[in-house]
What does this fold into?
Amino acid sequence: MRDFTGAHDRARQVGGIVLAVIAGVAIGAMVTGKDDPARVIPAGAAAPSPRPPRDPVQLMLSRQAAALNRGDLTGWLAPVSPALRPRYQNFFRTLRALDATVDYRAGKNGRVELTYCFIRPKCPLNSPKIQQKLTMKAGAITGLATALGPEPPPWLQGDLTFARGRRVTVGAPASLRTRLPEIVKIADQAAAIDDRYAALADNRQPRYRLFLATDKTWRTWYGGKATEWAVGYMQPLGAAGADVVINPRRLPTRAALREVIQHELAHVATISGVQTRHEDMWLVEGVAEYIGMQPRRANDTYSKWALRRPTELNPPPLPDGAGEKDVAAFYAEGHFAVDCLVTHYGEPRAMEFVRLRLRLGNSLDVAARSVFGKPFSAVDKTCVDWIGNLFVTRRT
It folds into this structure.
């Protein structure tokens, strides 16, 4: 597999189904400037020249963004020509369903940037953005062209229907609308597990977002980076969070749906908002497997059949083009590695080790000494021996 992100691609096998979790790259950032504060002019000093009026297009766009953010459809549609209003109304409906916050920046020749995020009241730096071009006539927007870019989000590529659960918002195209009630229920159950680990990672999520792809949209959403045998991935959005996409046609049972969704939301809970190291693939995937399989432990899952006897706790990342057996074995080793940390040191300390390494960037040794009171080399030996004994016991 190619490395699309500078971080890593991730794949695993679940009960004979192989999945990929592909980390993408968040898209650009922008900052809206603030007006200068009022200044006191000393007596006798010349008054400054009047400030030029703000760009009327920028004023219009700022009012539109504010209207969307407060849920004011009338204000959002105010500058839009009647012929274009159905399209803008659908855009409004979609962004409100996703709990999005937006900001507009006017450029030259009708070009504008729409920044969006899912954190209120203002989007952080490096939030994703969309390039648009407006056609204006007599102060009204009469035309809108949107550049999809190399990694277009699902909601920019066609009408979706959204269903809102307690913790998860799920979007689906027309052909998958009937799956929404079932999958919302499954996703909310998975999110209840993932929320606990998000809290341990100090990365609580306002809501999770999940998109259901068809075989066709699977090849276009977020650039269609997932391999043909993949069934789900997590798409990072920088500081704005992360989206999850699954292909439900390739998940024939409720148990498979629950496991895959819980695994992908585990990535959101543990690594959204940070850039992980490629060398940490074992831990990124190991903790997602550990969370995704809850409440079962590693030795009660298919991981025990895919396991190979390890020589180190943190093996090198999977190479591009790794075969299915190698992929399954790598995920199983990561799963057992995290299970070992939990078994020997307790879940709170194991998850703190994960947080220090993946979210704060501590070295493995510093994280191990801080949490376990011993160097990583000692932890490595303990877990390699423990996993090796399990492997031998299973084989005999």
